Amino acid sequence: xxxxxxxxxxxxxxxxxxxxxxxxxxxxxxxxxxxxxxxxxxxxxxxxxxxxxxxxxxxxxxxxxxxxxxxxxxxxxxxxxxxxxxxxxxxxxxxxxxxxxxxxxxxxxxxxxxxxxxxxxxxxxxxxxxxxxxxxxxxxxxxxxxxxxxxxxxxxxxx
Length: 159
What we know:
With 159 residues, the protein is mainly alpha-helical. Helix content is 74%, strand content 5%. Strands 1-2 form a two-stranded antiparallel ribbon. Strand 1 (9-12) and strand 2 (21-24) form a beta hairpin. The longest helix has 34 residues, at 125-158. The relative contact order is 0.15. Its main location: membrane. The chain crosses the membrane at residues 28-54, 60-79, 99-116, 122-144. It is a multi-pass membrane protein.
């Protein structure tokens, strides 16, 4: 009689003992990255508001440029919040759909960090450092999300 593993778990005999063990599909390293990225996201939000106020009071902006940058910053923070929550939910529940949506939003997040890193009207050094850290988080998460999503996908195909 063939027994099946519960959904989200794989039978694994990688140690070669002949005994099968259940293996979780969720990724601990991804969850650790997501947890730290949430803390970074919160601090980055406060930091970005303070820097935007400073730049608005200190530097000259062409008509409407500061307003557009503030609007893009708000959209960016909202999308990052959605992306982080979907990635965490998809990883914890071992569900492909939230992870796939998070991967798509991850590309938008990387574009957002790239914009705030290089294409704003004024970019100061502390923003370069903060956005570089954000890019590192987002890039590492993308790799772990792709790996985790592929494991979940192949498990779903097996069942």
